[in-house]
Amino acid sequence: MKFTPNISIMNALLRITCGFTCLTWAGAKLAKKPWNNSYLIVAMLSGMKIGEGILRYCPVTDMVEEGLEKKMDSEESEFLPNRH
């Protein structure tokens, strides 16, 4: 399966920057309170955002765009006359 980039360069840079910022914050909090699992979840989500920025591919954006395309296709077929 081949993924094509579906986010812009500026969006990718923003995801990388925010991802590293949140990952650093979560790492510092985990160092003080390692039993708190919410910081671990933030660290994992931050890592996911960093990966999305590096690859320039966001699966959520892809699903939303695909859903909109399907919706537009179904709306177009509603307005076409039936040929029987």
Automatic annotation (TrEMBL):
This is DUF2892 domain-containing protein. Pfam families: YgaP-like_TM. Residues 4-63 form the Inner membrane protein YgaP-like transmembrane domain. InterPro entries: YgaP-like_TM (IPR021309).
